[in-house]
């Protein structure tokens, strides 16, 4: 009897887990199902490019995983019963169904977070999803010269969105509203380069500014300022998919699944969580931030741990750490901020055109790894232990 592995979500982390498991486990012993709401893989780290009119390469999940033993299914996840070992889905035709599992990998990721600010849900645009980026793309294309665009949020997503829009549409009045100082978590060199690029692109920066309301044509701030905005782009952080919170899994107050060092749920040993959906601890006992830089290592860790537990192999013991923060500042400029293992900026930073090329190579490398799930690392398909195939989650429960 095959051991059923169901992976929810085919972003960077979910698709990586499915592909890595296909390389690690013998096809006769496992049935790997990859459930995703869209039929294609979406490069989420490039949605700011999509929003300004650039076309991204389409990658069909069916084509990506053809011949690998992974079965992609286009369906929306509507619920998870971790006590019964089932997932409720609705397919593209609107038909409801239950998918059973012996091992579940939860990789539903995150979406934009309106922070409960009045008017954001009704009037602001987001780029945390393909659909959101396409909606913003249509709106930006309809703007006349001189109209104001305000990007709210001074994190990496906000920096990339503001510079991408300003470079693609120099005729617009682009501004960034940041709660803290511009690039406050960067080194002196990084902050200096950021200000240089923002100045060259003509982006107005409102530092130490908290937006407290959004209307169709303006944003208001905590100090009473009114900033005109024909378009408001909201990038103030991410919120995880709400499904996990509705289960009996142990989750944080924000809905992230609490996992151990192998990415396995601390409350349900047959469930693993990766990427933004997981609360995983990194160096210094600090939670890993929501990012691709965190997500891919958690996917590798989870896949290798699942394979080890099913085959009786050695559990992975590779500490997850950071090396740099990669920021695109339009197509011609970039910033690579080197960091400590626990993600604190150091003095060194790579800037300019070389940094833009570096960031592009990182993005292409991540997408290539997902799009070629059985290439790259050596393929070592091991047989699943008879007990594992029979009992599923019982295997390795005490490991």
From TrEMBL:
It holds the Pfam family Pyr_redox_2. Keywords: FAD, Flavoprotein, NAD, Oxidoreductase. InterPro entries: FAD/NAD-bd_sf, FAD/NAD-binding_dom, NDH-2. Residues 4-302 form the FAD/NAD(P)-binding domain. The keyword Flavoprotein applies. One of its GO terms (molecular function) is NADH dehydrogenase activity. The keyword Flavoprotein applies. Belongs to the NADH dehydrogenase family. This is Oxidoreductase.
